[in-house]
Amino acid sequence: MTRIQHPLELLAPAKNADFGIEAIKHGADAVYIGGPAFGARYGAGNTVADIARLSAFAHRFHAKVFVALNTILHDGELEEARQLAWRIYEAGADALIIQDMGLLELDMPPIQLHASTQTDNRNAAKVKFLEDAGFSQVVLARELSLKEVADIAGKTSLALEYFVHGALCVAYSGQCFISHAHTGRSANRGECSQACRLPYTLIDDKGKTITENQHLLSMKDNNQTENILALAQAGVSSFKIEGRLKDLSYVKNITAHYRALLDDVIARNPEFRRASSGQSTWTFTPQPEKTYNRGFTDYFANDRQDDIGAFDSPAFVGEAIGEVAEIGPNYFTVNAELDSHNGDGVCFYDAHGEVVGVRINRAEGRKLFPVEIPEELTEGTTLFRNRDQEFERALEKDSAERRVALTPRFNETADGFALTLTDEDAVSVTVELPHAKEPAKNAEKALATLREQLAKFGNTMFVANPPEIALSQAWFLPTSAINALRRDATEKLEAARLAAHPRPPRATPAANPVPYPQDELTYLGNVFNAKARQFYERHGVRLIADAYEANQEKGMVSLMITRHCLRYSFNLCPKEVKHLKPDPMTLVNGSEKLILKFDCKACEMHVIGKMKKGVTLNLGTVRPA
Fold this sequence. Notes:
The chain is an alpha/beta fold. Among the domains are: 233 residues, Aldolase class I (TIM Barrel); 82 residues, Thrombin, subunit H, CATH 2.40.10; 100 residues, no CATH class. Helix content is 23%, strand content 27%. The chain contains 13 helices and 31 strands. Strands 1-2-3-4-5-6-7-11 form an 8-stranded parallel beta barrel, surrounded by 7 helices. A 6-stranded antiparallel β-sheet has the order 9-8-29-30-31-28, with no helix packed on it. Strands 13, 21, 22, 23, 24 and 25 form a 6-stranded mixed β-sheet that branches. The relative contact order is 0.14. The C terminus is likely disordered.
């Protein structure tokens, strides 16, 4: 009986094609990238030619390229988006990540569709609906626990994608409208102004200040290092790293880290397998704590817990290195066990709780010579390192290579010889060499030379297993002839691998799909065009409100829905302290006030506000340059 092995896909971000190529070198099974327009990360756009170049590289390893086309679209953008989808398909991309259901009403290319996390995928009914609608993969809400993931996995055959690392949106994705309400920059159209990273004062319903000047909606960064096996066992098949705006060192370091974790899971659990080909090796040791982060949390993976917020600062503070022991005229010393390096960046919290950064010119053991010594620095201050210069320099260089294993087989033919190369995916090519058969004068040396030359794959994408030699006797062959044969076979194998890339087909929608889980959609449904309205009507929705971006919601509404709860964070949860009630609270930032209401049954917090006067939606920023 053949054991079914489930592929585990490591999905990495690509700010551009070059970053995507590095992600694949460092071990990604797939990358996701923005196209020229309509991607939910404004500033992370790429040309169709970039996507074609990335796809050609990825497919050599049977890795995939997903393109984000995941903003909501107004009516005037639909045709342009449809045409772009076709161009992306023709460039070789493997899937489109979309949010706007209006696209499903158009003549789209036969490319696989993935449901963006912006479609708010947090229960089995929604995921089952998306399966019936023709999606092949769904990006789950970041807030889901392992138990919730397992429940969804048990009720769908869709591939489930789960964020395992990177920045966390405090709101359910697709359910945050603060940016548009305050600035006209819509998160659903890729322009989030990140109001969640601002400092706020929290006031209770009696006017009492609970805390002030803290970043109360800013979450620590996601890190599921300890949960990879549990996520795979719960049904996750795609492990997603956040970060289409992150720098290259982040992509290299974090991709390599999770590649090592997934490889270990696969090695120990025969029910899983790699989702692409080749083995990556690195010139550095992956260390997630070295890369920009706001501290780490596994969020709600193991249910609600304390300390998920980065309330003190939304900046990268880094690793604690010790306390300042002495301050000299142009130096200070640190009681540190970690070595410091010339060019390191360190920081500390001043008396007001603000992060102050310091660049180190020269490090002599524990004595550090900074560019300048901040006035706020005092003896006893705890120092953090947020830039390890030595580590960063290692990542600036070529830091990985990825090789596909193959087995060369050399044998005789009627009029000469043949070389067959068969790779780890059973892709095989044979190249023949017409040549006179002249017995070698030194048989042992001739065979040794043959084996040596057949194993040389240099800077190609291949690495050879021991060659198989099937000859009746040792023949004389010039080294140049062997090398030319090997090079010819190598080129043909690369071409054969590209031709054999398993480009995933578009799923066929169910003949009798389940109806949409709701029969009414408020502005939270993000319906921004007539085709999206048509889609939902076709799937049983009776009443459909316009998206918030249509500026029809004039009053006080939920501008953010989040599983993060400030009552819980400050030990004021009615479920934990029985005499308390879930009374409203207020967040204050300057003249800005947001009302907090608490849905204890759903265990959610709603951030209530209204659209500022004069705010209009910017419709031009997601269009191609």
